[in-house]
């Protein structure tokens, strides 16, 4: 029986497995520049975040209808449930779809077809987090927030993703302020490839309650101390870090040191179709390669619920 856990860092577009990509391409008459699924899988050799993002955005061309988004989410939820996920807070990237002429309603209502009945069909509760692409302009993010207004009953919060370096959190100050005024929860990717100062900025300028990745905090002892003191959750993605070469090998991943430092770490899959594993696979990998004890794994699973939007703030502070 896999440990019950919450998944807090998962891009739904990153769950597009090659088989489903080809099925949707055929259904929608979209030509893919790969002969078959094995040829596509061979392209999953990444040098860094950008080389992954290029393929990630390219493959999204197959997602066109509400049913496509529903099928994508259903396939993820079935796999996640089989690996012990009981609650999932799911990112989506509307700007990548709007740019292709796929409307906000198609994306959100499509995802909701699967998410809205996920507790019955998969035993997984869900929430939806809308991400802004940080390599697009702040004005584009603001327009996206505006476009999401009719769907805010389906969206619990906002996030910030895509190419990090050169796009500091401060660029999105106004859109985060506007989202906060709408009652949306706030998270952001920071310290994946970008410097520790982006983590500080995400906390102080954007008011995030959770940091996605946050790996590079380890370069700044004062920041680590702050994150421990304020019990700021970090949504780590170990297999992603290896595939995107943020760490050289899993054996060198700082997760054990981060837990020893007292950081509120969680383990997640990021883009499981691309990085070789879903949430349970990430747990298995850190157990096998990093030698984490059962007690540490239970701590990670417990942290995932504590860090989720389901938890009350007092509960998080009390640990
Ligand atoms: N979009 C999808 N996966 C991402 C990641 N790991 N970092 C930034 N943006 C992303
Ligand atoms: Zn991510």
Automatic annotation (TrEMBL):
The keyword Hydrolase applies. Keywords: Hydrolase, Metal-binding, Nucleotide metabolism, Zinc. Residues 4-317 form the Adenosine deaminase domain. One of its GO terms (cellular component) is cytosol. Its cofactor is Zn(2+). GO terms for biological process: adenine catabolic process; hypoxanthine salvage; nucleotide metabolic process. Binds 1 zinc ion per subunit. It catalyses: adenine + H2O + H(+) = hypoxanthine + NH4(+). The record marks 213 as: Important for catalytic activity. Substrate binds at residue 271. Zn(2+) binds at residues 9, 11, 189, 270. GO terms for molecular function: adenine deaminase activity; zinc ion binding. NCBIfam families: aden_deam, PRK09358.1-6. Catalyzes the hydrolytic deamination of adenine to hypoxanthine. Plays an important role in the purine salvage pathway and in nitrogen catabolism. Belongs to the metallo-dependent hydrolases superfamily. Adenosine and AMP deaminases family. Adenine deaminase type 2 subfamily. This is Adenine deaminase. It comes from Streptomyces capitiformicae. The lineage of its organism: Bacteria, Bacillati, Actinomycetota, Actinomycetes, Kitasatosporales.
């Amino acid at each position: 029986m896999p440990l019950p856990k919450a998944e807090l860092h998962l891009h739904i577009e990153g769950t597009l497995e090659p088989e489903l990509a080809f099925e949707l391409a055929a259904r929608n008459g979209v030509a893919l520049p790969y002969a078959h699924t094995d040829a596509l899988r061979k392209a999953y050799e990444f040098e860094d975040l950008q080389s992954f993002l290029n393929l990630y955005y390219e493959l999204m061309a197959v997602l066109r209808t509400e049913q496509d988004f529903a099928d994508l989410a259903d396939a993820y939820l079935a796999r996640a449930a089989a690996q012990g996920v009981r609650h999932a807070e799911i990112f989506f990237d509307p700007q990548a779809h709007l740019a292709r002429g796929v409307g906000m309603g198609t994306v959100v209502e499509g995802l909701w077809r699967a998410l809205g009945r996920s507790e019955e069909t998969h035993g997984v509760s869900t929430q939806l987090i809308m991400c802004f692409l940080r390599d697009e302009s702040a004005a584009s993010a603001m327009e996206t927030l505006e476009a999401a207004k009719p769907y805010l009953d389906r969206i619990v919060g906002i996030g910030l993703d895509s190419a990090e370096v050169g796009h500091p959190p401060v660029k999105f100050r106004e859109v985060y302020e506007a989202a906060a005024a709408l009652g949306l929860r706030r998270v952001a990717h920071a310290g994946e490839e970008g410097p520790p100062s982006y983590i500080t900025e995400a906390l102080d300028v954007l008011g995030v309650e959770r940091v996605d990745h946050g790996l590079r905090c380890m370069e700044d002892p004062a920041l680590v101390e702050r994150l421990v003191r304020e019990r700021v959750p970090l949504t780590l993605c170990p297999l992603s870090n290896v595939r995107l070469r943020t760490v050289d090998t899993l054996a060198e991943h700082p997760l054990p040191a981060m837990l020893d430092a007292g950081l509120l770490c969680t383990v997640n899959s990021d883009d499981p179709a691309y990085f070789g594993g879903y949430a349970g696979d990430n747990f298995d990998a850190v157990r096998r390669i990093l030698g984490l004890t059962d007690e540490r794994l239970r701590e990670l699973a417990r942290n995932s619920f504590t860090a989720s939007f389901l938890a009350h703030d007092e509960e998080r502070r009390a640990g």
